What does this fold into?
Amino acid sequence: MAIRRILIANRGEIALRVIRTCERLGIETVLAASKADLGSLPALRATRTLCIGPAPAAQSYLSVPTIVQAALSSACDAIHPGYGFLSERAELARLCEAEGVTFIGPTAGQIEAVGDKLRARAEAEAAGVPVVPGGPASSRAEAVELGRRIGAPLLVKAVGGGGGRGMKRVDDLAGLEEALALASAEAAAAFGDDRVYLERFVARGRHVELQVLGDGAGTVIHLGERDCSVQRRYQKLIEETPAPGLPDTLLNDLREAGVRFARRLDYRGAGTVEFLVDVDRQEFYFLEMNARIQVEHPVTEAVSGIDLVEQQIAIAAGEGLGLRQEDVRLAGAAIECRINAEDPSRDFMPSPGVVKQAVWPAGDGIRVDTHIGSGSAVPPFYDSLMAKIIAHGPTRADALARLRQALDETQIVGVASNIAFQRRVLADPEFAAGGVDTAYLTRLAQREPALMEA
Amino acid sequence: MSLGTGDLEQIMKLFEQSNFSELKLKTGDLELHLRKDGVVPRASAAAQAAPEPVMLAPSAPAASALPALGPDEVDVLSPLLGVYYRAPKPGEPPFVEVGQAVEADTIIGIVEVMKLMNSVRAGARGVITAIHAPNADMVEYEQPLIRIRTAG
It folds into this structure.
């Protein structure tokens, strides 16, 4: 079924990015916007903008019936959910299926299969995809045996726990029994449940994810990986492709594993399979699958020359995959930097307001995805992402040099931003060397307290 | 002519409800320049724009197309995006008509969102002077549905 008009159920840079591809394809766009976003760039750029509700997302962007009603009433063939908000809500996919509106994304069943962590882990194991070694330990003898198989260091975690409570690290298996007894007693006291499980502890991990495309009928291809290890409290700040310095065998195994996982689900659309790479053991483990377009998808587009939103639309329209794996050529390296309206000197507190002046970079290999121009608002109701600056070059060093120059050109006046912070990270020799782990930013902040100054 | 504080408040309110992004007004020695948050001149967005696709026709009159509110008039706004129905059921007489007196709790219509019916109340006591939204049309959040000349 041809898609001629798409309702965009999102806001910010991703809304504008989807609009751009639609314009190129001659598809009309209807933007579902909250009252706070009626003056935004995507609202001005969409073919038509509908006010779907007040500023709080619960009454606008997160209202499934309102989104579907808006699509039906404005005669849209399809809904693009972007990322966040309703993008991974099976309820929306299901209502679309019932109402005959094409959901640009996977099936409701696939969203549910990957949304449940335990089920996703079981699917990974069934697909022969490695998961973090571990499991429940019901008896002392069983736990000791399991601990031997996992190897040290490992974690003893309370089944009912969370947030680090009831968790013990075991560096030497000789101390395992003692740690088990202690963790079990603590768990019983804290959560009323003395059950514990063991899990391998990854001292140094890298976040490496695989971009996949599936036709929904068992064919899955990948467009290479992205390394998103530069994180602060699980918030990604810099992403790149290829993942620097990974051995070819590990990378090939990871790519095959990611494709196997998506193939097992007959995955439809664009998705990302996330892995934790254990630096010391040189192994990788499945973490989860994201059933949507990712924030960091432009680095993949830069090296592959493939428009992922266009692919999403084509697959949703039933055209299948227009590509075979051998058609995918990954050229050069790309790095993306997120520019957020947040204040590093105040513990990265969001800094909403009106951007008095926005100067974005341009030039060879530079792409800027943003919804912020001079005069744009950063409303306090949503996330603080203002822009993604992506640099592409023949080598990682070229891409990095371009990105550094691009950030020097970038200026935001009126709200606090993390531009200076990102400049310092890009200038750091450890980042420049490539292959940092997820604890890198914490280390850098300790080494250079000045990093946190605006 | 000179404008008082009340007039200015009225102008700002009208501007806020309108689809216009900028307003410049000069009268006597008063100069007023209003701009809505987040709005930048269209030109900067158009600079990088691809050819515009065929525009969708708006399905309902925009707030800016409505005549200005009189001093004692109020518009009843849609509480949500949905389909506006003037009558309880097809073929039945409308809840209200122009010229009819209403109380604050008088139901003036229904807004349907995915088969869920939400009744809309007048919210003010007075007489209906206009019905803005056509029956069975989509209305957006806070789109004016009817106008009331308030009494007391």
